[in-house]
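sanity check both lines:
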Amino acid sequence: MEASEEPKQCPARGSCPVFLAMSSGVVRYAPSGLSPVPERNFTEEPWNANSPPQPEEGLPTGPSAVSVPWKNLGPSKGPRESPGGLVEASASRKEAQAEEHSAADPLDVSRLRSSSMEIREKGSEFLKEELFKAQKELKLKDEECERLCKVRAQLEQELEELTASLFQEAHKMVREANMKQAASEKQLKEAWGKVDTTLFSEFQAWRASPTLDKDCPFLERVYREDVGPCLDFTVQELSALVRAAVEDNTLTIEPVASQTLPAVKVPTVECHNTNTCALSGLARTCHHRIRLGDSESHYYISPSSRARITAVCNFFTYIRYIQQGLVRQDAEPMFWEIMRLRKGMSLAKLGFFPQEA
């Protein structure tokens, strides 16, 4: 090598990271020995590519140091990366990873958004269905409430109308009852003006001590004026028997049966014929027959004779009730009821009786 030629320098002198670290003092070389590391000024020195590496000046050589022959392998075929390139590569890798993460993040976000939208749509549909059901039920309840309100209003109206109608009817009935009472009192006053005071006095005397003895003034008058004439029939013998049975309450009246029953012969009248009355002797259709006491004999009687007998029996039944204390009324109502029964005997004696008799 010529002397004029300048020694070759390290090709990576300006970009070698080791050189830069050592020259700046960040990294110091420390041998394996325990001696302190001398301060050195790492300045750029001439460097020959074919020269072997020289030991550090001023540093002792370790006992294990072995000299190794240096061989120049020649320049590297591939491009030598500078520290800036390494940093840029590292940055580029980080950017690539960041881009990958950034590319993955939108994908995950989009998936999350899509699932969230799906959940939201399903929840919205469910809520809509529930809302529709609730609205439908509410509508049905509103309709039911409206129907019940109408029914209630109708019932209240009918109740008011019924109450008014009942009030009017009750008022009408009270008015009619008052009118009838006033008319009855008027008739009673008029009747008392026409009644024989002697007859009423006799009735009061009899009512004070009721008896069936016909010798008392009250019953003697009734026998003479009503009972005797009413039971006075053409056949006197049978009439007396009927009168005695009525007084003893042993006379029986019953309808005629379809079959023919045996009858008793009276000397003047044949009584076995249902077309002839046994009491009057007249040709009449007989629908009833009488039996006296415990006798098995029956007598067919006409409707007129039956009406006269029943009128007398009704009178005796009522006075028996009074005698037994079964009639609990004042004297006036009792007296008027007896007058009504006496009127019935008078009408039957004259031939007035209901057609069903």
The beta strands are 251-255, 288-292, 299-301. The CA atoms of residues 230 and 350 lie 9 Å apart. The first strand starts at residue 251 and ends at 255.
